[in-house]
User: What shape does this take?
Amino acid sequence: MALRPAPVGTGIVFTRIDQGNALLPAAYDLVSETRLGTTLRNGDGVGLAAVEHLMAALWGCEIDNLFVDIDGPEVPAMDGSAAPFVFLMECAGVVEQGASRQAVRVCRSVEVIDGDKRIALTPADDFSVDLLIDFDNPMIARQSSCFHGGSFAFKTEISRARTFGFENEVAALHAAGFALGGSLENAVVVGEDRVLNEGGLRYDNEFVRHKTLDCVGDLYLAGAPLLAHVDAHCSGHGLNNAVLRALFASDRNWKLEPVMSALPSWSETAVAAEA
Ligand SMILES: [Zn+2]
Assistant: This one.
């Protein structure tokens, strides 16, 4: 995967360089599958899986414009978090561009409910995520997190949280020929009464922090940062996408507006060098 600078107004655009340079804009309405991660698919059927952790890193680094060239069907898993992407973008550098950032302001609340899972977007002048998870597994159980911050808070509090899976699922995946070898390098693996990874967890509540990371990345498929408060209960990739579809279903729910701020971080930015 290579990240290349892009001009103002490009947005985030993936290119499958192994599929005739098929283009996949990072757009909520190209999301086709959400079971194991967030997959984009264009009108020609070319797909790209697992975009959410990179999208979260781009939100955290305030990257509006970027070409992402990739020669395979999914974004590299790295360590299962967004931190390696943040690191590479900070190494490459980020430049301000000659245009104001655009944000999607949520004007009317929207909510999606699926059984005991729900996610709601409500109007706000900044972006925040309150998230609660509730798992049967005692190692995770009930955890909540309130993310109320920008770039710095994302990088320090959220970006390092890794994806997770369960020991029995890993065994089943191995039996089916998937996820061989790398499980402990790119995910937290949770057993009945312990975390299998040497070194344990990066945060006591790493699980809910990772769900927050997923939510940030999935919602950045709005095409611009949201001005909204997110309230989510056991939400996953499917509901994260569904709430964006609900938001954009009516023009009265949202508006695109330039962010009027003296902060340089609210100018459009692009990655400065290839990472
Ligand atoms: Zn994830």
In short: Residues 2-162+202-271 form a domain with the lpxc deacetylase, domain 1 fold (CATH 3.30.1700.10).
